[in-house]
């Protein structure tokens, strides 16, 4: 037996390792089960998607195809076809993001083609199939490489082309299958200034001809507009006294010069604001000395100014009706839009084509396309209106057919709010409220209390009886379905858009409940268009209405603007407050005033502090000792921390407590990521394999600063600094070499997950950092940044991610017990629910070092298709994901926005606290009943049998 | 052969490659430190001392600073009584020559509680440029005048750690090993059933033989049909 | 010896410099090169799928949307305006998975297409260019709902737990029952009754006893059976 022993032991070890493998498998399969999986019949049950196109840039009615539609190209780089009757998207093509996809021109629709020009230098010309949206051909606007003409691989030479900035000066004209590329060139020498017109076959890209037209009147400061087939120019604003007009295609024509006197009737003043009037006729409009009026010039061989003053704000469009040219003037006053039609030549009004309408979504509209077909009933026009608030509307025969809320394609801030209580619950609330008042007064009137109690309960009973008997419920101010449900799953999504429009969207079906518009506001910085939305008072403080505050910048001055409103009804609460200073930083205070309103603290560019509302200054001062604000300046790289400790109830004072400077010479701040303020961490530590506890470093003041290297030597580096913004102490920093953006960071609990593109290995990677205090906890009750001096232990790991990432966000739940998942917006339109467990930096490389609930390390994170929460409903160009806890601990609500909107709910640890949607109530009832009945019957039978036996 | 120009390229190359990678070369830092002991939002900085970090990588440093006067100690105590912070301004000059000024602060009571012992941490970025100076003190919080008037300052220099990279090498090795193991396993598995499991079968047979030897009647019980079949 | 050393260092330094110069040139080359290329290929439609409109639902993306290509009616696509570099070409279709391909264009305009291997980036398995993208699987976004089947129901542990004792109660005694005693019709029901009673009286110690007797040998069991038969009578 002796010799067998070692061998047996070896076998036994192998057996053990096999068991370990089995354990992995169990954990792994458990993980698959963990991920949220939908059943096919649950499609659309708790999710919805809405598609948008964005603000209209170019539009054209397609009257050629069998199915009438509207072709649009938008600011969001989208080319789409809209249904004429309903406004629904028939097909949509999303072009490249940013500058590379800017639509420069759209044309050819009247000829049955659809040609778009997009991008920078060289621009890409694409020909689309009008009916189906397939591409027919695409070609770049550059010369094909001469030396490689014979090779099968196509390449283009761009060396002969102009500066990328000049693309803004190029004018495009598409007509009869020809694309004209019109570029004024100035060589500094006034006599050599010319307009270069290059014509291409719009479908094949074949260069047809190139001509140069002398245009000595153009200088570098000139403003030129295209009024096909003419080009019209004026000099720089304070010199212009003539409008120059040149025909582009007639070879031998000379330019026309129209002086001020001919346009405005007097010789004084200079011309400004030269604009081309869109439509079917070469017409330009021009105003004098930036005045409030403008006049139009109808261009032909003998151009004629029309001596009628038009308001500067009137939008113009020229359409053809009954063979005559009609000028449509659109004005907007007192929430009413007027389209006044006049005959272009005579200026006599055409009343049957004039419209006036008022609609909540039509704000300062302009006509982007118009068509007046002759019909048996007489001529009627269809106008496509694009409003200042980005909404699109179709007007047909002076009737509004449909409206699209295209502002939602550009959401900049989102909050999800609990719905208010129902009327009945509010009545109960009032009852208790009044009782409290009595207590305060000290007059204990037992009888009246009793009476009130009985009254309210009688009312409840009445309501119940009415509901049971099927009577109509009593009239209510709120919609019956817009009340809080028992699990808090139904919420109000408050979305702020870059157009300054605010929407209230209920979350169950995505219906827009209300909309508001704040005029003349814009984002704090040009690049990000960011606005800030604060919930000052939630919907749990009846009878005080819930209150949201929107912080933005004034469009003209850049000063701060605060707008408060009721997020449930869309009622403004007070006027728009235009502040006299620029907002540098803002924060919502954690304490509230007596009426449950949380004040906003504002730090202006002069480093002085303000409270909003002003009356909350005393409240703010009472907690000022523990209030810290930090600012980060992207341009100077300076981060500073301020304390409000010296504040008095009369005046809030900020003084600097720390300053960190990231030298801009070598680096640039890309992003500053803090944790969610409503986040709660349930478990303080992590149990290791040897049953000891590793305590998490949970610092709510920790902020991650993402820094990108600049300059030649540091270009492709990513540095991440973890900074405690109260004490100003740096906690950790990590640098990645040879990586580039886009960077996305999620910062939560004691970990960070960030993604970047690895240039060296040419793949997207996700790295995680996890911070631990160690085996002992420094302070078991509360964390203080000022007294904690121990630097955390940082676990780190990187993974390969096999797709491009557009956005990252973590899930959040009410109490933080449920495990965290990361919502990953993929470039292919999917929204992936990635368990954090898969990016856990403690995933052991050596399988022997295993801990509980940790899966062994694999360099690549697999994308499970059943973890794609939006299944085949792709979401184009995600710009943000908002997660919000629901009333259920297991469930997190997810709202994805970008060009499309998508809403769903996820349960990262499965729905452990509520029965599943598909729970079979009937089966369990039937089984229970059957069991009861059968036991009863068998009992009877058994006793009968026993009786029989006894008789025998 | 040992003419000077032969060495120039070497030096050049070293410098060039050093700039390209992460904090590969050593440098020095010179800090001038001021502190404010006054109350009020505007700090009134007075000089505290000079610190020279001779080697960035090792963190070796020399600290030269004067002790606190008793009037200053009193001011510090007053700060601590009001729960105010002790503020510090540090101006750092690195090897590259640019000078940057940083602010940092620490609750005054912690400084008193730790007997004027403090830690000054200088954080560098990947290019060895200073990005932050932070002051910390372990405490505990005390509002008493300490027994000493001299600072005990420890200077630390920290720079970014290299970011993690996906560990593909071990994974590939593992795959490789598994593949080999599988191949080996396949060759071994060609053996017959008996050859593979003889070590389990032999004891079982021995056991059966032994038990049947002690009870010869039970020999037929192995059939296992059960007592029900009579 | 010393001379040799110096020579070596010089060689090394030279090498170093060359490396750096070449890397600098390489970088400059990337920035200066203004040539743009066109990546071409064809996407094949998924089999047995509804063919109308699949071109509209599909597009091709290079490096996660940096450059886009759209499908013609026949599935062919071009991605224009691509500078030299390395690109991962993915076909985006919401219902079908396509394998991505890496296309590398060097500064001289030479194309190479290969399989994407994110773990072993140096491994090259070349694929033909112009690209031919074929679907390899439909996406499975949904879990399959379990369908009710008799076998599933029967092999449910709960059901098994109910059925097995039932079998034990109803069938086992019948097998154990002496066929001879069965023939006496008059006492049959009584016997069954008794038998039922005796079965319900079976509890753990008796069971173990039975097992021990079973292991001990047939002899004893027989006597036991006889005893039981006697008891019955």
From TrEMBL, chain A:
Originating organism: Neodiprion lecontei
Name of the protein in question: ER membrane protein complex subunit 1
Domain ER membrane protein complex subunit 1 C-terminal: 748-951
UniProt subunit comment: Component of the ER membrane protein complex (EMC).
Keywords on record: Endoplasmic reticulum, Glycoprotein, Membrane, Signal, Transmembrane, Transmembrane helix
Gene from which this protein is expressed: LOC107222049
Family per similarity comment: Belongs to the EMC1 family.
Main localization of the protein described in the UniProt heading: endoplasmic reticulum
Membrane topology term: Single-pass type I membrane protein
UniProt keyword annotation of Transmembrane helix present: yes
Automatic annotation (TrEMBL), chain B:
Membrane topology qualifier: Single-pass type I membrane protein
Keyword set includes Cell cycle: no
Chief location: endoplasmic reticulum
Location relative to the cell: Endoplasmic reticulum membrane
Keywords of the record: Endoplasmic reticulum, Membrane, Signal, Transmembrane, Transmembrane helix
Transmembrane segments: 6-25, 197-214
Any one cellular-component term (Gene Ontology): EMC complex
Family statement drawn from the similarity comment of this UniProt entry: Belongs to the EMC10 family.
Protein name: ER membrane protein complex subunit 10
UniProtKB/TrEMBL annotation, chain C:
Gene this chain is encoded by: LOC107217685
Protein name: ER membrane protein complex subunit 7 homolog isoform X1
ER membrane protein complex subunit 7 beta-sandwich domain residues: 54-161
Membrane-spanning ranges: 153-173
Compartment annotation: Membrane
Family as reported in the entry's similarity comment: Belongs to the EMC7 family.
Membrane topology note: Single-pass membrane protein
Keyword Hydrolase: no
InterPro entries the record matches: Beta_sandwich_EMC7 (IPR019008), Carb-bd-like_fold (IPR013784), EMC7 (IPR039163)
């Amino acid at each position: 037996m002796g010799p067998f022993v070692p061998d047996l032991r070896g076998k036994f070890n192998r057996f053990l390792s096999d068991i370990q493998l089995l354990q992995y498998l169990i954990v792994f399969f458990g993980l698959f089960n963990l991920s949220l999986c939908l059943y096919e019949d649950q499609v659309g049950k708790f999710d919805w998607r809405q598609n948008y196109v964005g603000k209209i840039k170019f539009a054209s009615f397609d009257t050629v195809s069998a199915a009438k539609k509207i072709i649009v190209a938008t600011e969001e780089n989208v080319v789409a076809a809209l249904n004429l009757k309903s406004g629904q998207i028939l097909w949509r093509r999303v072009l490249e993001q940013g500058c590379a996809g800017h639509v420069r021109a759209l044309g050819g629709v009247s000829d049955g083609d659809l040609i778009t020009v997009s991008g920078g230098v060289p621009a890409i010309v694409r020909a689309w199939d009008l009916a189906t949206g397939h591409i027919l051909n695409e070609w770049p606007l550059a010369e094909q490489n001469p030396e490689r003409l014979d090779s099968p691989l196509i390449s283009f030479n761009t060396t002969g082309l102009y500066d990328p900035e000049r693309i803004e000066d190029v004018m495009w004209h598409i007509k009869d299958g020809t694309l004209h590329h019109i570029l004024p060139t100035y060589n500094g020498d006034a006599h050599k200034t010319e307009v270069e017109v290059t014509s291409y076959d719009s479908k094949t890209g074949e260069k047809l001809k190139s001509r140069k037209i002398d245009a000595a009147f153009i200088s570098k400061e000139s403003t030129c507009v295209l009024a096909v087939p003419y080009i019209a120019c004026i000099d720089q604003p304070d010199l212009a006294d003539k409008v120059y007009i040149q025909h582009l295609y007639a070879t031998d024509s000379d330019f026309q010069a129209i002086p001020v006197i001919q346009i405005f009737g007097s010789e004084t003043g200079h011309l400004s604001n030269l604009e081309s009037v869109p439509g079917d006729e070469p017409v330009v409009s021009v105003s004098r000395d930036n005045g409030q009026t403008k006049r139009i010039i109808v261009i032909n061989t003998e151009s004629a100014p029309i001596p009628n003053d038009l308001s500067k704000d009137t939008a113009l469009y020229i359409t053809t009706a009954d063979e005559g040219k009609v000028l449509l003037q659109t004005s907007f006053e007192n929430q009413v839009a007027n389209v006044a039609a006049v005959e272009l030549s005579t200026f006599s009004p055409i009343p049957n084509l004039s419209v006036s309408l008022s609609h909540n979504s039509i704000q300062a509209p302009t006509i982007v396309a118009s068509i007046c077909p002759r019909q048996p009933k007489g001529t009627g026009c269809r106008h496509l209106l694009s409003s200042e608030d980005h909404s699109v509307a179709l007007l047909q025969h002076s009737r509004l057919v449909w409206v699209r809320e295209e502002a939602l394609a550009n959401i900049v801030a989102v909050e999800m709010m609990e719905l208010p209580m129902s009327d009945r619950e509010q009545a109960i609330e009032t009852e208790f409220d009044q009782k409290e008042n009595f207590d305060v007064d000290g007059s204990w009137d037992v009888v009246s209390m009793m009476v009130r109690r009985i009254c309210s309960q009688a009312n409840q009973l009445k309501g119940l009886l009415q509901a049971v008997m099927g009577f109509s419920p009593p009239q209510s101010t709120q919609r019956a379905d817009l009340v809080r449900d028992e699990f808090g799953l139904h919420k109000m999504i408050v979305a702020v858009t870059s157009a300054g429009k605010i929407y209230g969207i209920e979350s169950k079906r995505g219906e827009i409940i209300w909309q508001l518009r704040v005029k003349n506001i814009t984002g704090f910085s040009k690049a990000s268009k960011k606005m800030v939305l604060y919930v000052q008072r939630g919907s749990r403080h009846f009878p005080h209405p819930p209150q949201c505050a929107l912080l933005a910048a004034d469009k003209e001055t850049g000063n701060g603007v605060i707008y408060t409103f009721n997020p449930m009804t869309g009622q403004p609460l007070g006027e728009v407050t235009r502040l006299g200073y620029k907002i540098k930083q803002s924060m919502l205070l954690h304490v509230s005033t007596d009426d449950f309103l949380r004040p906003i603290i504002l730090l202006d560019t002069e480093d002085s502090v303000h409270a909003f509302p002003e009356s909350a200054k005393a409240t703010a001062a009472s907690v000022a000792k523990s209030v810290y604000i930090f600012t980060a300046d992207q341009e100077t790289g300076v981060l500073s921390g301020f304390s409000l400790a010296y504040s008095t109830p009369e005046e809030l004072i900020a003084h600097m407590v720390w300053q960190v400077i990231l030298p801009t010479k070598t680096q640039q701040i890309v992003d500053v990521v803090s944790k969610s303020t409503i986040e709660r961490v349930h478990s303080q530590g992590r149990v290791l394999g040897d049953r000891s506890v590793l305590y998490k470093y949970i610092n709510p003041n920790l902020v991650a600063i993402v820094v990108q290297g600049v300059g030649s030597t540091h270009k492709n580096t990513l540095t991440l600094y973890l900074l405690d913004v109260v004490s100003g102490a740096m906690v950790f920093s990590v640098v990645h070499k040879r990586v580039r953006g886009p960077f996305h960071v999620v910062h939560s609990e004691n970990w960070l997950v960030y993604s970047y593109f690895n240039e060296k290995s040419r793949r997207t990677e996700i790295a995680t950092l996890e911070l631990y205090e160690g085996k002992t906890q420094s302070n078991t009750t509360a964390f203080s940044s000022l007294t904690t001096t121990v630097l955390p232990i940082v676990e780190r790991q990187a993974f390969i991610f096999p797709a491009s990432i557009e956005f990252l966000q973590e899930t959040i739940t009410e109490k933080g017990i449920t495990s965290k998942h990361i919502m990953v917006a993929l470039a292919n339109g999917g929204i992936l629910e990635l368990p954090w467990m898969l990016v856990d930096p403690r995933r052991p490389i050596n399988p022997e070092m295993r801990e509980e609930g940790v899966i062994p390390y694999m360099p690549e994170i697999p994308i499970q298709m059943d973890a794609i929460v939006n299944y085949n409903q792709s979401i184009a160009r995600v710009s943000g994901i908002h997660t919000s806890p629901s009333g259920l601990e297991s469930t997190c609500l997810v709202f994805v926005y970008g060009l499309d909107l998508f809403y769903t709910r996820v349960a990262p640890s499965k729905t452990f606290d509520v029965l599943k949607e598909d729970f079979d109530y009937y089966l369990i009832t039937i089984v229970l009943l059957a069991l009861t009945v059968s036991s009863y019957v068998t009992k009877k039978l058994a006793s009968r049998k026993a009786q029989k036996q006894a008789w025998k | 052969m040992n003419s000077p120009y032969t060495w120039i390229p070497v030096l050049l190359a070293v410098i060039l490659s050093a700039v390209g990678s992460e904090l590969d070369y050593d440098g020095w830092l010179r800090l001038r430190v001021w502190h404010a002991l006054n109350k009020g939002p505007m700090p009134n900085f007075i000089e505290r001392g000079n610190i020279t970090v001779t080697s960035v990588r090792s963190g070796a440093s020399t600290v030269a600073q004067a002790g606190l006067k008793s009037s200053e100690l009193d001011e510090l105590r007053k700060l601590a009584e009001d729960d105010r912070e002790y503020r510090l301004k540090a101006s750092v000059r690195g090897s590259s020559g640019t000078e940057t000024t940083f602010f940092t602060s620490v609750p005054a009571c912690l400084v008193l509680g730790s007997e004027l012992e403090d830690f000054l941490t200088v954080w560098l970025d990947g290019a060895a440029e200073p990005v932050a100076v932070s002051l910390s003190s372990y405490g505990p919080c005390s509002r008493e005048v300490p027994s000493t008037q001299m600072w005990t300052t420890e200077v630390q220099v920290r720079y970014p750690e290299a970011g993690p990279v996906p560990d593909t090498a071990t994974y590939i090795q593992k795959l490789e090993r598994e593949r080999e193991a599988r191949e080996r396993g396949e060759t071994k598995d060609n053996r017959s059933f008996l050859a593979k499991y003889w070590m389990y079968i032999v004891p079982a047979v021995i056991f059966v033989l032994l038990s049947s030897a002690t009870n010869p009647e039970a020999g037929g019980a192995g059939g296992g049909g059960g007592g029900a079949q009579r | 010896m010393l001379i040799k050393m110096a020579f070596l260092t010089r060689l090394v330094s030279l090498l170093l410099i060359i490396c750096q110069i070449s890397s600098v040139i390489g970088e400059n080359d990337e920035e200066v090169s203004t040539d743009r290329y066109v990546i071409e290929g064809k996407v094949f439609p998924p089999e047995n799928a509804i063919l109308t409109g699949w071109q509209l639902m599909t597009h091709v993306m290079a490096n996660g949307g940096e450059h886009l290509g759209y499908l013609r009616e026949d599935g062919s696509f071009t991605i224009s305006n691509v500078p030299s570099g390395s690109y991962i070409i993915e076909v985006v279709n919401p219902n079908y998975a396509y394998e991505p391909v890496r296309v590398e264009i060097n500064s001289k305009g030479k194309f190479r297409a290969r399989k994407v291997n994110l773990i072993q980036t140096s491994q090259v398995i070349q694929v033909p260019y112009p690209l031919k993208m074929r679907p390899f699987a439909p996406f499975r976004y949904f879990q399959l709902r379990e369908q009710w089947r008799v076998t599933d129901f029967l092999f449910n542990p709960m059901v098994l737990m109910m059925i097995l004792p039932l079998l034990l109660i109803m069938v086992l005694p019948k097998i154990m029952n002496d066929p001879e005693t069965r023939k006496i019709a008059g006492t049959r029901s009584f016997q069954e009754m008794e038998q039922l009673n005796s079965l319900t009286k079976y509890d753990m110690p008796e069971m173990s006893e039975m097992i021990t007797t079973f292991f001990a040998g047939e002899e004893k069991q027989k006597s036991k059976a006889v005893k039981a038969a006697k008891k019955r009578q």
